Amino acid sequence: MSAVPATDDPAVLLAHATTLTTPCGTGHMVWRRWGAGRPLVLLHGGSGSWTHWIRSIAPLTAAGRELWVPDLPGFGDSDVPPGGGDADAVAPVLLQGLATLFGAQPVEVAAFSFGSLVASLAEAQAPGHIARLVIVGAPALALAQPLRLRLWQHLEGEAARREVHRHNLGVLMLADAARITEATVDLHAANMARDRLRERRLVRTDAMARALRALRCPLHAIYGRHDALYADRWPQLQALLEGMPALRSLRFVEDAGHWVQYEAPEGFHALLAQALGGGCP
Fold first, then answer.
1. Which keywords label this protein (predicted)?
2. What is the CATH superfamily name and number for domain 10-146+200-275?
3. What's the rounded Cα separation, in Å, for the pair 124 and 95?
4. Which of 88, 60, 61 is nearest to 72 (CA)?
């Protein structure tokens, strides 16, 4: 098996991936698999796809992990979930996918942003599918502050849309605007265009906090210190998470914002390694 290259080009990474599908209503949930070794499932955030983890594929596979990275239902190449347009409709499809791929064997999961909500709801609903959960930039704790993002769908012309995408990336996703490259805008624009899950309201409630309190598997949390969602609310967030019975660690990457695994991959992967017991770089 050839080494997976470190690149921001999705096409290059897909050439090294195996694509699989699991049921999603009458359609499919699309998964990509890279590497070999102990399985690790990576869940992306809202208005995203597997490319939210694009800078994690090479280092994690090089460390001996087999990565399973889906497009969650309603995003990327996966079909919309039956029964709704929010995380609670996605969670049962994820559970079905985990059962299809791993049977009764629980698997480690690292979940970014909206994916953290989906994973938490899934494990609270049907315990035993997740062996260990690492939440990354989790937004759905009823503490995240609203951000002023610009609309782009009404704009004509690619240049105008890219300008808005670049602005929104700077407001929400990355702390340092200088790190927003043309490739970053490409990834974000492609993901936004394929977002069909437009009813995401649970992220503004305490649904995730309630699900985390019910967790039986070990829980770890990683945030970028400059995550715009929690700019002045870190004490409240820390107190809330430290009150979770399953919490084993809460760690911060100092030089990153919300999309921490993309903006500061080396610092993030070092903390992920600690959370997973040394199973990654």
1. Hydrolase
2. Alpha/Beta hydrolase fold, catalytic domain (3.40.50.1820)
3. 11
4. 88
Nearest CA to 31 among 96, 86, 106? 96
What is the distance between the alpha carbons of residues 136 and 198, in angstroms, rounded to a whole number? 22
Tokens standing for residue 278: 């040394």
Q: Determine contact, residues 89/22, Cβ cutoff 8 Å.
A: no
pLDDT tens string 222-265: 999 999 999 888 899 999 999 999 999 999 999 999 999 999 99
Select from 113, 117, 124, 101 the least CA-distant residue to 40. Answer: 101
Q: pTM (2 decimals)? A: 0.96
Question: Could you say which DSSP state residue 137 is in?
Answer: S
Residues 117-139 pLDDT 10s: 999 999 999 999 999 999 999 98
For every residue of 55-86, DSSP letters joined together read TTHHHHHHTTEEEEEEPPTTSTTSPPPTT-SS
- Which sequence spans correspond to the domains of the chain? 10-146+200-275
Token code pair at residue 266: 């080396």
Residue type, 202: L
